[in-house]
Amino acid sequence: LGVKYILPLAFPFIIGLILALLAKPGTVFFSKRWHLPGAAASAVSVSLVILLFLTLVVALGAYALKQAASVAASVPDLQQTLGETVGQARAFVTDVLNDAPQSLQPLLYKVAESTLQSGQSLVDSAVQRIPAILAELVSRISQGTLTLGTGVLAGVMLSSRLPALRKKLWGV
Fold this sequence. Notes:
92% of the residues lie in helices and 0% in strands. It is mostly helical. α1 packs across α2. The protein starts with a helix and ends with a helix.
């Protein structure tokens, strides 16, 4: 229960701490080699970590978008193939039901028809939900942008103060 309320508040700072830890070697390098002040070295180092992360996100996003477009293009074919499969199943069931006793055939035909009809409805429903799922994914990505921005700011602020924080928190 506490995680439900505390995690949304603490998550940007967790991101910031992770960014600061990832940027620490760069901060040390820029402050010792290029003689930059701690804040400037931290800003450059965190910026490079973010640039590397964003490059990775853009590459993965482009790949995911390509795959999503491929899935979206194959949806009509998928729907047609599934419709044909349902038709073949209907023909098979009809052949099997023709061998059933005459007194049971009307009842068995009704049961089989309702089952096959609900299967076709399930396929149609699944195909119609794909755009809604993609829209939900896009909205969640945009909601995470504010959290990521706060995490970046926290990373820049924590990066220059990481040695002092480490001594206070972990005694190292």
